[in-house]
């Protein structure tokens, strides 16, 4: 579990731009019931309530917005985040208790909204003649101008690494870049964050030093592709190596963006785990989702991680366009060849703003109105049914248990026991990790 960096970045930006003129409180509502969130809102008596919205958690976000309006009818309810950005008109058309949707990157738009809601750009709202959009002003070009996220409202002691080499340690998330130059069809990241933009190496190292001085020794770089610019990655690693302080960390990246030199320096700089977005071991499926990686790239990356004693995660998506029993077999065979430290699995989900979402609508698998139903996750069932996907996910979990020996079987059994009192489908999802 990591800190809600987005909301805390908004708080920091507002405090910096409007010193002494605005009070901002951040509530991490993860694990809280709607009533508990509403009670916190009641205590604070806000004029504006901003809610980050994710597709799977949209119902909870809307419930909080509704409860807020019931308690404080004059308070402005503001929704933001990836999901709200792509579904702003639908939200405002169907949920009268939502006043405004903030679209795109939040820091500048949020501050501008607080200063002048009548003229701010990057919002969707109700006008006298219906839903109106003030065009997003674009991406923040210089990320170094942003202050460090303000976590002063959070109980940071609860953000602990739960697995892997850092298990049990306090975990601090660090963002070194935003955006992605790729267009994988299952992902909606680029449609919000745009092409790649970097924070300076100095800024990154300064932020690590800041949290090191406050007791943190384990970090998670949350960039979509940490090693996208290998020269920059090398600079960051050398900066960490040359410091008297020693930290360990994890990151995520692509298999075609690592090599022997980079991984050697990453290991020396404290990297202990890399999560690779492999998604499939089938060239057919990799092409279908526009992944632009090959099985040879994948095998090389995991072999190099082994050589440099860095734990690896093989991320899999089941059910992509073109998925068949044969492509799933190719993925299982590739996993056996790569022998990763960990396997993470997911059934393919369709997120607004992604290519898969558009393809699902084009093929008539669902319509945009599915978001108005009680269904939490919207799965793309073009190649496999949801039941077939979950059966395959169980097979991958069993494969991981086989590869890890007795520890893997113990872990698998514990996952099942944790949800043994729940419904059969929830039990299945507990076993497969989704």
TrEMBL record:
Its cofactor is [4Fe-4S] cluster. PROSITE patterns: B12_BINDING, RADICAL_SAM. Keywords: Iron, Iron-sulfur, Metal-binding, S-adenosyl-L-methionine. InterPro entries: BchE-like, Cobalamin-bd, Elp3/MiaA/NifB-like_rSAM, Methyltransferase_Class_B, rSAM, rSAM_horseshoe, rSAM_sf. It holds the Pfam family Radical_SAM. GO terms for molecular function: 4 iron, 4 sulfur cluster binding; catalytic activity; cobalamin binding; metal ion binding. Residues 166-381 form the Radical SAM core domain. GO terms for cellular component: cytosol. Residues 1-124 form the B12-binding domain. PANTHER family: ANAEROBIC MAGNESIUM-PROTOPORPHYRIN IX MONOMETHYL ESTER CYCLASE-RELATED, SLR0320 PROTEIN. This is Uncharacterized protein.
